[in-house]
Structure formats: structure tokens, C-alpha cells
Amino acid sequence: MAASRKVRLDSLPSASGGISRLLTARLRAAGIAPAPLLAQAGLTMAQIEDRKARVTVHSQISYLELGAAALGDDLLGFHLGRDCELRELGLLYYVLASSETLADALNKAVRYSGIVNEGVRLRWRDGREAGIGFHYVNVERRGDRQHIECWLTIIVRLARQLTNRRLIPGHVRVIHHGKKTPAELRSFLGCEIEFDAGVDEAVFSGDVLQMPVVGADMYLNDLLTRYCDEALTHRRDERVVTLRREIENAVVPLLPHGKASAVEIARRLGLSHRTLARRLAGEGLSFSRILHELKLDLATRYLREGFSVSSIAWLLGYQEVSAFTHAFKRWTGKSPKQLRLHEETGEIDIRRERRKRKGQRR
């Protein structure tokens, strides 16, 4: 394993596992055994049955994607977020529900979200518009759709439940690709989703922030805030964040717009171009290598998800389909259409094909 890929198990961001438990219950209700899917995602039934056990965020994301395929539910994340009991968030929910205003509650949600999920952190910006968004910490964003749609749904529900108002977001933006907002999801949100947006967030009018929280109790809130502070001290202070993961998460939303240059990524990470190159070299990497491997991973993922070749070319930043097809054949020895046809009869091993191509060139 490359040095940049070495991450100790105890450094991986963890989650309370509530979403994984919701999915397990839904699978059982549908007559689907959860154990095989849990195993594929790197989870165990013991973790699910022990409500005190935590799971890695990466495994939870994988489990949701596997569950969506098994259930044939393309909106699984939304359905889980819509149907769950918000009090399952535990201490985090109660500190929000006892806050004085929605702004106060959201500030505490950002501060204490790591208690529930260390890998997908809340962040927000206020002003004339209030954006409630998510930041991935040492977790791949590109493979996640169900997980983030679940969390966005929960955030909208929380805002509504805390104020007892059916608040309608002005915008909902997501990084992942989509053609149009499903009618069921649009009806719940009250607005369209903007896909390929470069950010995951729900945006409300700024004036909603001063809305009072129904059932606010400042004495209880002070007590619960102290409990939250204590809970955070029992979590590891700051997880190891791999530079490669941060680069990949920054690159993906920029690819379709042709802006994923080393200079731009360095700027977004708060580094100089020279510092970024030096740090990558120290890990035996280069920006061009990361970009190349990321494009290959995304291309094969999009093919397996049924995207058209022209759509994939655009998502990866190619102006011409022929340029993408040529690049893909150079990477794998097969055209995108050949790979898709091959997978209909048996999955191709991309890494093996790449090794074979390298051997033929020697």
C-alpha cells in the first residue's frame, strides 16, 4: 500500500451508526438479509446490535450505497432521513431542541456534529442567506450520494421541527451528478436540487435564523451544552487528514468546469503551488498522478452507474467525447463501450488490465 494510503484504523473518522441501524431495519422489513451487505461494507452485525458501538464513516457510506442497490431504491438516503425519529440523534438533538433561536441551534449543530459523525462535518454561513452545508474530513466525497441526501433531509427536517414551521430552502445544492430532482424529493423540499454544484448545502433566507425554537429551555440547554463539551473531549481531538483525500475532494466538483489545476487546488487548500508540490513529493506522489487515478476511478464508477459516455466526458472535464474515449482506452486497453459490454457478462479487473498494458509496453 502506498504511503499516502496508509491510515491507521483508529484514525478513521467514525459515526454513531444510527443511519446504518436505520438501513438494517429497512432491509429486514423488506425481507433482505443485512449481514452479507454489512460484510461487504466492512461492518458486522455486532456493531449494529450494540447501540454504543461506532462505525467508520467510510463503511456507513458504502453500506448505504449497497443497500440502495439491494432495495432498488434510488432515493434511499432521502427516505431514511425523512422517516427517521430525529430524537435518535441523541444528545445532539436535545441540545438543539432546547436552544433559544434557530441560529443558536445551528451554531451548536456545527460545534457538536462530530459527536454523531466525525467524517461529514456541518458548517454554515450567515447573512442575507443562511447556508447549512457539509465538509468531508478524511472521507471520499465522490462515492457518496445516499449518505449526503440523508443528512440534507435531516437538516431540513430539524429546521422545520425546531421552529414548527414548514421552512422552504431557497436552494439545495449537491456536489454529485443528477439529471433532475425526483418529484417526491422536490415535493418534500419545496424547491429544485442544483446538481454538480461544488458544495453540499441547504440555503434558507437569513431572516429565519432569529425564529424562536419551540420548547426552548435555557437552563436545560446550559446543562446539555456542558455534556456535549465533555463528549467532545472523549473523542480524539483531530483525525489524521490525508493530503490526497483533501485534494480528491477538492478536485471532483471542479472537473466538469475545467478548473481542476494544481494551482487552483493549492489555493483552495490554503497552500502555495510550491508547498503543495513539495508535500506531495514527500509522500511519493504528484498532482498529475492523483488526477489521473481519480479520473480513472470516476470514469469506471460512472460507467457502472449507467451514465452515458458523453456525460462522463463532461463530468471529467473533457471538451470532446473522443478525447475521453482515447484517454480511457490508454488507461485500460478498452473503450468505455467495451468495458460496459464486458461488465454485462463479467466484471473487468481494471487494475489487472492496467498492469497488463504496462507489461506490454516494456
Outline of this structure?
With 362 residues, the chain is α+β, with helices and mostly antiparallel strands. The protein has helices at 18-29, 34-41, 45-49, 57-71, 76-83, 91-97, 102-112, 146-163, 183-189, 218-233, 243-251, 262-268, 273-282, 287-304, 309-315, 321-332, 336-343, 350-361, and strands at residues 14-15, 55-56, 120-125, 129-136, 171-173, 193-194, 201-205.
Assembly state (oligomeric): single chain
Find the count of extended strands (DSSP E, 2+ residues). 7
**Which strand-content bin applies to the residues?**
5-15%
The helix/strand order is EHHHEHHHHEEHEHEEHHHHHHHHH
- Rough outline: globular
**Cα distance, first to last residue?**
23 Å
Helix share, percent: 40-55%
Unreliable stretches: 1-10, 236-240, 345-355
* Count of discrete alpha- or pi-helical segments spanning 4 or more residues: 18
Instruction: Find the structural class using helix and strand composition.
Output: alpha+beta
For the biggest β-sheet, the strand order reads: 3-4-7-5-6
Calculate the mean pLDDT score and round it.
84
Using the CA coordinates, give the radius of gyration: 22 Å
Task: Report on the biggest sheet.
Answer: 5 strands, mixed
List keywords for this structure.
362 residues; two-stranded antiparallel ribbon; 18 helices; 8% strand
General description of the model:
With 362 residues, the chain is α+β, with helices and mostly antiparallel strands. It is built from 18 helices and seven strands. A five-stranded mixed beta sheet has the order 3-4-7-5-6. Helix 9 (183-189) links the parallel strand 5 and strand 6. Helix 2 (34-41) crosses helix 4 (57-71). It is globular, with a radius of gyration of 22 Å. The two termini are 23 Å apart.
